[in-house]
Amino acid sequence: MVLKNRFIFKKELKLDLGIKGKRALVCASSKGLGLGCALSLAEAGVDLIINSRNPQNLESAASLLKSKYQVHIETVVADITTKEGQEAVIKKAKNNLDILVTNAGGPPPGLWSDWSRSDFMLALEANMLTPISLMKEVLPGMIEKGWGRVVNITSQSVKAPIPALGLSNSARAGLTGYVAGTSRQVAEFGVTINNLQPGVHDTDRIKSLDLHTAEQAGITPAEAKLNRRNAIPAKRYGTIQEFGAACAFLCSQQAGFIIGQNILLDGGSVNSTM
Question: What domain count does the chain have?
Answer without folding.
Answer: 2
